[in-house]
Structures are given as structure tokens and as C-alpha cells.
Amino acid sequence: MYIEELQKILKGIMAELGYEIDPKIVLSNRPDLCDVQCDDSFKIAKTYHKNPIEVGEEIVAKLNEIENYSDFFESVDFVKPGFVNIKLSGKFINKYVSLMMKDDHFNLKRPSNPETFYIDYGGANVAKPLHVGHLRPAIIGESIARILRFAGHKTLTDAHLGDYGLQIGEIIYAIKRDFKDVPLEEIDFDMAYLDKVYPEMSALCKVDKDVLDECEEITKELQNGREDYQYLWKKIYDLSIVEIENIYGYLDVDFDYWYGESECYPIIPEMKAHYESLGVVTKSEGAKVIEVKEETDNKEMPPFILEKSNGASLYSTTDLACIYERMKRHNPDHILYVVDARQGLHFEQVFRAARKSELIGDTSLEHIGFGTINGKDGKPFKTRSGETLKLVDLIKDVKETFLNLKESNKEMSEEDIDTIVNAIIKFADLQNNLEKNYIFDIEKFASVVGKTGPYILYTYLRIKKIIGDYDKNITLSDEIYNDFDRNLRLKFLELQSSVDFAVKERRPHYIADYVYNLCVLANNFYQNNHMASLEDGTNKNDWLLVLDLTNKLIEELLKLLVIEIPSVM
Ligand code: ARG
Q: Mind listing the pLDDT tens digit for each residue in 388-438?
């Protein structure tokens, strides 16, 4: 890696000067002045009781004397009060660009110890329509999983469907009411029935306590394995999963395990016995709880509820049981939950309860809590009539808006249109730091100008046209022809650092930012460097190679954002 190579040179120099330190080279925060910089003069000055100006000047003087200077540097300058600013030589930049071109993984580092990540995302609920709130866990989760895999780690992904909650009890209640005299095996209903019954029942349960109690009882009996309820549950599940698969399929989101909460029920007794044996389970108002308060807490921290007073399990029970199961079965290094930030307290309680057991060991339990998608009023997105927007309707809206905005009359296949719709939605979402709420503004997201999915796709297709077919067997020369060219090549070198950040912080926006900035530089490059007017020769070859690498990067990085490329747009 180029940073490491530079650090090695610097380390040698520091040693010559009598300083024992592992120097750090970082990307410049003044790209107008330099490409990379070293700020270690301050640290050295402190350790060796010197003045940082003196130290910085010494380092720069030494660097300017090294052998093969131009293999590495164009210039090395000292800037007060202690910065060492470095501009890289064309030869050095091209050495690494060339390595990226020749390697099908862009010469990125592979982890020496790949880690295993168990990633829980998606979280759709059976028998309830997916709504706008299910978009982010699906695409952020999928993107994080792809980024981790791309970086060389192992991932296990799990949809963790909500398939055993109160909504099922409510629907079984309605079925019992609507099919009163029908023998169990003859009861028949379709998805339209579920779509009608769920909102009706959920409204009824809000106003009628007796109905609610009965639905809760049904849910509990279902969870305890009552056979007729199990039979109906399976029918409900089979209908609903088709819709869930369809919508995840449309979004290109897939899981290794399509498990639901129901999956962990068989392990609940063992898990409970385990925590009971540790002596951490206590009784509180008839319920079984685990105290998770810590002395340093400066906020309210209610106990974790393991079992309700009626003996039923809850959302918290299933999450704890799943951790227990995942540890036993896979012993991952990390378990990630890509779930709405508003569930922060829930996960904090679950993680603290889980850690009472040594079974968790060094495994990190992480809640990747994302913000909400808001309407233009700044509040969580709703339909005009104030209901939660279904995910299918949101996709439909985006598609319509895109088709209305589309300026070109080019014939487009349905497949290409869907690909672009995906790009619009996903890029708009993933370019944000995921913690932040953002406002859903379809017109803005669908535009080909600005930081949008269509802008990236457009850039890619434009470059593809410019490069056309050419002999890719040529090699890159040592030349760099102008600043547009240089800036683009330098950007290639920054890939490693963007990937590193995305992996370390589990944040796809580092990749989105990188690919967007790459596209801005690529646009500057081809608008200012006319390929068509160039004679065949070294310059033309070099530029074809540069554009080819640009497009390979765009394509691969878009995959990490779960975005494909249409054939036209
Ligand atoms: N089904 C839940 C919901 O719609 C999300 C599940 C999140 N994952 C988890 N392990 N709790 O809110």
C-alpha cells in the first residue's frame, strides 16, 4: 500500500534523526497544498522536548535529500507550526494505479485474520405489509454485509422476521370469528383477507381491552405450540412470505437465513435455565427479569424482561435466545443489529443481559441504529391521509416520479427502469451517515444532477461510451498529463482508506461519498480532456486505462451499495 511505503521511508528518516516512532501519513486536509501529510513533529517535539518547527524542518530537509527522490515525491514542504506536506510524484502515483489496474480486487489489503460477522437486518413482520420503516434496515444491512465481505470478512445474514408476535394472535382471532363453523382443514383465505383483517384487528385491539386480552392469550398458546393455531400460523406465514420475498427480491436483498422469531422458541427453555443457573434472574411483579442497571448509568435503565407474568415470552426474550443460539452455533466475532435507532434502549438491555453469561466472550454486540425517513415536514414519513406509507407504494411513487422527470425519449426496458428506481432510492439513503434522519424528496433524488444515484449511473454510461472497445492489454506509462488527470488518479489511491472507514465504522456512506467524488473528478476529467481528438498513442492509451479503472470502481462500489447498472438511461 502506498501509505505504508511512505511510512516506511519516514520511519527510516526518523531513526536517522534519533527519533523512535511509528510515523503516520494521513490524507491531506488541504488538497490544494499537498496530497498527504505527516503531523508527527508535534508528538516528537513533546517526547524529545524540542520545538515542533525545528523537528518538522529537520524531517523535510532529510526527505529532500533521499536517494531516488523523484520515485516518490514531487515536493516535500514544511509548513508552520510543524506540518510536513507531501506531493507525490507521477511515477509513484502510477506505480500504485498500475497495481490497482492489474489486480481484480484493486490491490486492496486482505485482512490477515478474517472475522465472522453475524448480521441481523431486514426484520419484516409476517402478515403485516412492509412499510417505509422497513426500507432502511433492508438496504443498510445488505450494504454493510456486502462491504464486510468485499473487505475479506465472513458474514452470516439473518432476516429475523417478526413471525410470532401479537399480530398473528390478532389474525387468528379474526379467522376464528370469520370461519366459525368451518372445519380447520377447510379454512381458506388469501393475502387480500390478511391485508383487510390486520389493520381492522389492530385498531380494534387499541379500543377493546377484552379482545386484546384474548389475542394475547392466543399468541401465547401459539407460542406454546397449540396445534390448530400452529396450523393457521403456517397458512398465514406461507401467504405472507411470498410478498416479503417479492419486495426483498425487488430490492436485491437476500439472507443466508430467512429465520423468524419463531425459530428460537425451542431454545428458550434452555436459555432461561442457563441464565437462572447464573443466579441473575429475579422476580418483579410476577415477571422474571434480569437487572441490567450499572452504577455509572446516568439515564433510566429498566430491568430486562425475560418472561411476562403470564409466562409468555416477549420481543426481548427472543432476542436474548437468538444471541444464545447464535453464539452456540456460530461463535461469531461480532453480532450486528441493523435496526431503527429508536430501539436503542431495547438493545442496550438485551446486550447487558446477554453479557451476564460467559458464553458471549469477546464477541461484540452492536446495535447499528439508523435514523428515520422523514417527510418534508421533518416528521416520520406518512401518506397524505396520515397513515404509514407501504413500501410498495413508496417504490411506485419513485417510479412514477422518475418516468415523469425523464427527459430523454430513449426506450427503456422495464428491467432498466427498476434498476434506476433502485439506484434512486438506495443512493439517496446510503449517502447519509446512517444515524441521521433524512427527508424523502423524490424529485431531488431522481435528478441526474447533484449527489444522486442517477448522476453516478449517468457518469458510468457516459464513460462506457467514451472508452468503447479497445485493447486492454496495454500498460500504463509514467506520465500524468494535467491536473484533471492527476486528481482522478490520486482519488484511486484513496480507495483503501474509504473502505477501511466503512468497515471499521459499519457505515456505507464512506463508499457512497467515495464513488460520488470519483464521479465528480471523472466528469471533470473527460469534459476537459477530449479523447476523440487525441492521436492513438501513449496518452490515449493511458487515458483509456484511467477511465476503464474508473468504471470498474464505479461498478464494484455500486454493488456494495446494492445498486446495479442499467443498459441505458
Ligand atoms: N420486526 C422488528 C420490527 O419491525 C424488527 C426486528 C429487529 N431485529 C431484532 N433482532 N430485534 O420492529
A: 899 999 999 999 999 998 877 778 999 999 999 999 999 999 999 999 999
26-58 burial, b at 16+ Cβ within 10 Å, e below that, comes to eebeeeeebbbbbbbbebbbeeeeeebeebbbb
Q: How does residue 473 score in pLDDT terms, banded at 50, 70 and 90?
A: low
In tens, the pLDDT along 231-242 reads: 999 999 999 999
Residue 176 alpha carbon to ligand 1 centre in Å? 27
C-alpha 467/C-alpha 479 separation (Å) is 19
Q: Report pLDDT for 388.
A: 85
- The CATH H-level (homologous superfamily) assignment of domain 2-88 is Arginyl tRNA synthetase N-terminal domain (3.30.1360.70)
Which among 187, 176, 179 is positioned nearest to 222, based on CA atoms? 176
DSSP state string for 227-279: HHHHHHHHHHHHHHHHHHHHHHHHTT---SB--BGGGGGGGHHHHHHHHHHTT
Q: Specify the residue with its C-alpha closest to ligand 1, atom 6.
A: 123
Q: Measured from the CA of 165, which atom of ligand 1 is nearest? A: 1
| In the chain, where the domains are located | 2-88, 166-250
CB atoms within 10 A of CB 24: 13
Indicate the pTM of the whole model. Answer: 0.96
